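Saturday, quiet lab. Running sequence design on the structure tokens for the scaffold JK sent over.
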């Protein structure tokens, strides 16, 4: 059985979900995304 591997990529200001022109857009960009990939 293979050992699980943790992978973390942080994009910060280089990859916002939406523009940062308003308070609502700032709120949308304050997020945490967790992607889980099967080890196969």
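Result came back. Writing it out in full:
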């Amino acid at each position: 059985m293979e050992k699980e591997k943790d992978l973390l990529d942080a994009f910060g200001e280089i990859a916002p979900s939406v523009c940062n022109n308003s308070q609502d857009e700032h709120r949308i960009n304050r997020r945490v995304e967790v992607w889980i990939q099967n080890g196969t």
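Notes for JK: The chain has one domain: 1-40. The CA atoms of residues 8 and 34 lie 8 Å apart. Ask whether to fix the surface positions before the next round.
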